[in-house]
Write a structure and sequence with these properties.
Elements (H helix, E strand, L loop, with lengths): L1 E3 L17 E7 L7 E6 L3 E5 L6 H19 L3 H4 L12 E3 L4 E5 L21 H16 L3 E5 L3 H4 L4 E6 L8 E6 L1 H7 L2 H5 L15 E8 L7 E7 L2 E5 L6 H8 L6 E4 L12 H4 L3 H12 L22 E3 L9 E3 L22 H5 L3 H9 L6 H12 L16 H12 L6 E5 L7 H16 L3 E5 L3 H6 L2 E6 L8 E6 L1 H7 L3 H10 L2
Parallel strand pairs: 4-7, 4-8, 6-7, 12-17, 12-18, 13-16, 16-17
Antiparallel strand pairs: 1-6, 2-3, 2-5, 8-9, 10-11, 14-15, 18-19
Helix pairs in contact: 11-12, 12-13, 16-17
This protein binds adenosine-5'-triphosphate, magnesium ion and zinc ion.
The site of magnesium ion has 6 residues, from helix 1.
């Protein structure tokens, strides 16, 4: 979870509306939002929930925060405004009662215009840290603040005064309000979030037998205190411990890198406006080759980054009227109608489709298209399989990376790095920003990796992942100088039975023993 504190003063134009008790949003249509109308109580803690890609950030940051920033900018003199970016009004019919609000997002804030975006790694939260965070949220509210939180942790949802649940699905299958009300109401609502709220993963009672061990001796990276530990191989190992206890130092600093170790970290994914899931994952390569072969022309024609690009928009599909401000007004390119390719390129077909039609397909559609028949392309199919495996079957191949939601970006990266060949996979907090339903899917993926003979080592705070581990290595007891030691090694059942560490205590409480 990450925090952005807004300290703006309400504009004079807003002070009348401020006397009301609600922030009212009517007809929001930003990104995938389908005419969303909600009322958010002021001076309360409201938590926005929903699966990854459901539209939470589009509502909280893309609509509410964006509009309040725009209104604040309008209160400056014309002279000052000349030096500020012109913000487009978000697509929303009515937004009133805007007030000073504190907005909290669980992930880095993407395209959010106010944040200082991409600069610190997300610090995942141990259940112990979540408790402290909850205390802070309550104190902020009790001081009279309106607190808006985007969060998946059931422990945080549980303390909300008001919940807005978006969905029901992701992308085009999301974007509507499925539930508004109390946590009790959410539980009874039958929405995906409501149904998963009380999920308690059972402790893994049939742990796998290791095939060997990775021996770490006298590790002293950062705060590690001369750590000796054997990390079992051929099983699912979860490394736990409060924030700052030394988990990343152990895993990234002490596991010998190189042959056979694939390390999937938390760094943000990089990409320009022209990058999309097809270019980022390497999927475009086999697709371009298949198009070239079928038509007897060069592969480079089928890339909107090179020869085949529409000359008017340079392959971006949009024309920015204000180049100084990328978040400014973008209009669809008239030349290619947003298809991004030069017209002549679209005369070439594969399996009856042109390249822009292929890039408009969802992962699921493309999987079928490249799976059989004239367009059969095994190289493309393998990459599409991995994207579907991480739960992104609905995502379209050509959607700009800059517009993906936090959890979507995280999983596109995961699917891409999973393709690297190796025997040991190291994942740093792969559940960051994922809904409980998305976590289930990820756990299935990790289990399949181990069952296929790989070793998987995961740094995790998510208790469902801890519960499913074959082996837990717990670092602590505290953070920084108070951490850096192994405080527990064993099975999930053992750590719960022992309750000798913070992780053990919390896991025991979580599974309800
Ligand atoms: N310009 C765009 N074109 C098409 N789809 C878009 C565009 N911008 C956003 N989307 C889609 O809208 C959906 C909602 O995005 P949003 O960032 O609001 O999700 P979220 O609920 O915050 O998800 P997460 O929990 O992963 O952060 C996503 O599927 C995203 O890919
Ligand atoms: Mg989001
Ligand atoms: Zn164009």
């Amino acid at each position: 979870m990450r925090m952005a504190t807004r300290t703006d003063t309400p504009s004079p134009a807003l002070s009348v509306a401020d006397s009301h008790e609600l922030i009212r949003v009517q007809g929001a249509r930003v990104n995938n939002l389908e005419d969303v109308s909600v009322e958010i109580p002021k001076r309360r803690l409201t938590v926005f929930t929903g699966v990854s890609g459901s539209g939470k950030s589009s509502l909280v940051f893309g609509t509410i925060a964006a509009e309040s920033q725009r209104l604040i900018n309008e209160t400056y003199s014309a002279f000052v405004q000349g030096f500020m970016p012109t913000l487009a009004r978000p697509e929303v019919d009515l937004l009133d009662g805007l007030t000073t609000a504190i907005l909290v997002d669980q992930e880095r804030m993407g395209a959010d215009v106010r944040s200082n975006v991409f600069d610190e790694p997300t610090a995942g939260m141990h259940p112990h840290d979540v408790q402290r965070m909850n205390g802070l949220l309550h104190r902020l509210r009790d001081k009279g603040n309106t607190v808006l939180v985007v969060e998946h942790e059931p422990e945080t949802i549980a303390i909300a005064d008001h919940v807005v649940d978006l969905g029901p699905g992701a992308g085009a299958a999301g974007g509507t309000v499925c539930f508004e009300g109390t946590v009790e109401g959410l539980r009874a609502s039958g929405t995906t979030t409501g149904r998963h709220l009380d999920d308690r993963a059972a402790i893994n009672g049939t742990v796998r037998t290791p095939t060997g061990a990775l021996e770490i001796r006298s590790a002293t990276t950062h705060n590690l205190c001369d750590v000796d530990v054997d990390i079992p191989l051929g099983v699912l190992v979860v490394i736990t411990g409060v924030a700052g206890s030394g988990k990343s130092s152990l895993v990234h600093g002490s596991i010998p890198a190189g042959a056979g170790v694939v390390s999937i970290d938390q760094s943000a994914i990089r990409g320009s406006r022209r990058s999309n899931p097809a270019t980022y994952t390497g999927l475009l390569e086999p697709i371009r080759k298949a198009f070239a072969k079928a038509n007897g022309v060069k592969p480079a024609l089928f890339s909107a980054n090179s020869e085949g690009a529409c000359p008017n928009c340079n392959g971006t599909g949009v024309i920015y009227t204000d180049l100084a401000m990328m978040a400014g007004v973008a209009t669809t390119c008239e030349e290619c109608e947003g298809k991004r390719f030069e017209a002549s390129v679209l005369d070439y077909h594969l399996g009856g489709r042109d390249i822009s039609e292929v890039l408009a397909m969802s992962v699921t559609e493309a999987k079928e298209f490249f799976g059989t028949g004239e367009a059969h392309t095994p190289g493309a199919h393998a990459i599409l399989d991995r994207l579907a495996d991480v739960g992104l079957g609905y995502l379209s191949l050509g959607q700009p990376l800059t517009t993906l939601s936090g959890g979507e970006r995280q999983r596109v990266k995961l699917a891409t790095q999973m393709a690297e060949k190796g025997g040991v996979y190291v994942l740093d907090e792969p559940t960051t920003g994922l809904h409980l339903a998305d976590v289930e899917q990820l756990l299935g993926l990790l289990d399949r990796l181990v069952d296929s003979g790989k070793s998987v080592i995961v740094i995790e705070h998510h208790q469902a992942v801890m519960a499913r581990a074959d082996w837990i290595i717990d670092l602590g007891p505290g953070a920084g100088h108070d951490g850096g030691r192994i405080v527990f090694e064993g099975t999930p059942a053992d750590i719960v039975a022992a309750r000798s560490t913070l992780t053990g205590e919390h896991l025991a409480a979580y599974i309800g023993t």
